[in-house]
Every structure is written in C-alpha cells, then in structure tokens.
Structure to design on (284 residues):
C-alpha cells in the first residue's frame, strides 16, 4: 500500500500560515509522542525558522514513558523548549505559560526596553491532522473555543484565541506535506489516524502494525487478545478475528472488522503504552 494523503485544502492552509507567520512571536508545535519525528511536518520547520519554538509531546500517556524521557532530552539538546502533555486530561497544561515566557524572554525584554509592557505573546499553534491541537487549545483556555473531533481535518479556518493578558493563540488547520520521501513515515501517520482511514486498506495497515509491534512490543497483541502470535501477520489478524468473534456469513472470518478493532485498540492505548520511534540519542 502506498501511504500518501494531501487534499487540496492543505495547500490553501499552508499559504494562509505563510501569511500569518509574520504576525506571531512563537510557534507551538504539537507532535504525537508515539512518533515525535514522523509527526513533525518539515514545512513547519521552514515556516518557523526565525521564531521561538516550543514542541509539545501530546498523547504522552499513550507512549512508552522511558522513551518519552529520551525524546525530552533529544529536543532539549537541539535547543528546543519541550513539554510532555496530555491535552485530553490536562496533564502538563499548567506548565505551558512558564515555558512560553522562557521561550520568548528575549522578545519580552526587547519590548520592555522600548517601553512596551504587557503586550501579549502571540503564538501560532501548528501540527499535523489529528494530533490534538483543538483539544489542547480548549484544555489550555479552559473552555471549548476550538472545534474538536477525532477525524483529521476538523479545523478548516483560522481563529485567534486570547487566553490571558500575556498570551494569544492562533489556531491553524492540520497540514501534512505533499510527498513522504520515506514510506515508513506515511505508514506511522496512518497508524495514529492522521490520514483519512477511508483511503486506507485497513487489513493491510493492521498487518503492517502487527509486524512492527512483533519486533518492539512482542507481547502487546498476545496479551490483549489472548492469542498466539502467528509467524505471518495475516495469521495473527485471523487470531484476533476469532478472539473477538468477527465472522462474515457462515464461519468465514471478517478480517476487516478485526483490523478495525486492532487499530482502534492501538490508537486508544489499549495495547499498552507504545512508542514507535526512538531518538538517536537513545540508540547510541
């Protein structure tokens, strides 16, 4: 399966962000803690190259805690301010204001020298689809001010949100980039639901996930479904179908339904806390 998804509205969203970047002091980038590198859009690096940067490892409750620590170290060594958060539960949200002040202290000092006091920091919130930007903004603001949904592409336009006297946020649509040079990046984005499931062959996607987990978290599937993991991924998927009683008419196994169950379980963290990427420092 070829992993690629770049609908037309993303081109428009990218143009809009290029126009708006000059209005902001700071770029707050949400990434998925399970795949912090693959969920970083390289276009955003180019877009925010002269701005202060904060990376938020969202959904960190779904990722391996030891690997989260390695990613924190990795980004700090790159000189990027970083925080582990869970936008849904609010974990880590209270620490963000302090990190914003730290990331923008040169800008705040420049303003002070010019006699500009209490001008809010303006931050653009960016990230790929379905990484949790709107949930983060709602959690941070303490009220539902950005639409949320578990489908990629819910945020279409732009909106400014004033959080307090010292910070304003610009919400932006989730954008991918036109071509994945490395198909494993597209595959991981498909795993976490950042691409439209309707264009995916779900049983193939599930088999790819089974293969990947058999290397890094070999007991995750057998423990969840109480099955023996087969030599082939299709055998394991059939085992999941039997375990969850997924049948078509007669006794034929419904592998598509089993694939949906596996992908839902992975995305919701029911297979355990899993990280699919390890930073180079952790491998050294």
């Amino acid at each position: 399966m070829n992993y690629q998804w770049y609908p037309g509205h993303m081109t428009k969203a990218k143009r809009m962000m290029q126009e708006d970047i000059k209005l902001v002091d700071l770029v707050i980038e949400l990434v998925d803690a399970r795949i912090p590198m693959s969920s970083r859009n390289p276009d955003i690096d180019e877009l925010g190259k002269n701005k202060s940067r904060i990376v938020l490892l969202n959904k960190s409750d779904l990722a391996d805690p030891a690997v989260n620590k390695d990613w924190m170290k990795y980004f700090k060594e790159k000189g990027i301010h970083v925080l582990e958060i869970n936008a849904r539960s609010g974990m880590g949200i209270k620490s963000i204001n302090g990190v914003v002040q730290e990331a923008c202290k040169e800008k705040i000092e420049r303003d002070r020298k010019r006699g500009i006091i209490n001008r809010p920091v303006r931050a653009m919130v960016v990230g790929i689809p379905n990484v949790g930007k709107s949930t983060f903004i709602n959690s941070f603001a303490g009220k539902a001010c950005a639409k949320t949904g578990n489908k990629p592409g819910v945020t279409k336009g732009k909106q400014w949100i004033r959080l307090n006297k010292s910070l304003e946020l610009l919400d932006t649509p989730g954008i991918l980039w036109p071509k994945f040079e490395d198909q494993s990046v597209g595959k991981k984005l498909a795993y976490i639901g950042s691409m439209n499931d309707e264009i995916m062959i779900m049983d193939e996607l599930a088999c790819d996930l089974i293969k990947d987990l058999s290397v890094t978290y070999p007991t995750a599937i057998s423990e969840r479904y109480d099955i023996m993991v087969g030599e082939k991924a299709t055998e394991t998927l059939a085992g999941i179908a039997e375990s969850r009683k997924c049948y078509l008419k007669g006794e034929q196994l419904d592998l598509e339904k089993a694939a949906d169950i596996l992908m839902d379980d992975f995305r919701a963290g029911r297979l355990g806390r899993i990280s699919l990427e390890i930073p180079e420092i952790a491998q050294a």
About this structure: The chain has two domains: 8-171, 201-283. The chain has a mean pLDDT of 90. The radius of gyration is 20 Å. The chain is about 40% helix and 10% strand.
